[in-house]
């Protein structure tokens, strides 16, 4: 819904893109959670949360 408001039209994203975004979110959350539990810094801490840079 927020994409529709942002672009002023209905936005249809390919299912593959949505699946990739879900995997990126899960992967980043896992890395950040592991770093937090082990009380270590992560080299990706400065990346935007949804960034897939360097994952492919």
Rg (CA only) = 15 Å
The low-confidence runs, each spanning 5 or more residues with pLDDT under 50, are none
**Order of helical and strand elements:** HH
Structural class, by secondary structure, is mainly alpha
Helix content: 40-55%
Largest sheet: none
Overall, the morphology is elongated
List the domain count as a whole number: 1
Mean pLDDT figure: 80
Strand content: under 5%
Cα-to-Cα separation, first versus last residue:
28 Å
Total helical segments: 2
How many strands in all?
0
Structure summary:
The protein has 2 helices and no strands. The chain is mainly α and 56 residues long.
Question: Could you describe the 3D structure shown?
Answer:
The protein is mainly α. The chain has one domain (13-56). Helices cover 52% and strands 0% of the residues. The chain contains 2 helices and no strands. The protein has helices at residues 2-7, 15-37. The mean pLDDT is 80.
Describe this protein with a few key phrases.
single chain; 56 residues; mainly alpha; 2 helices
List the helices and strands and how they pair.
Layout: H1 2-7, H2 15-37
């Amino acid at each position: 819904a927020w994409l529709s408001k942002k672009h002023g039209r209905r936005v249809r994203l390919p299912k593959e893109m949505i699946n990739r975004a879900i995997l990126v979110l899960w992967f980043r959350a896992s890395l950040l959670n592991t770093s937090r539990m082990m009380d270590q810094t992560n080299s990706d801490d400065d990346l935007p949360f949804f960034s897939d840079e360097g994952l492919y």
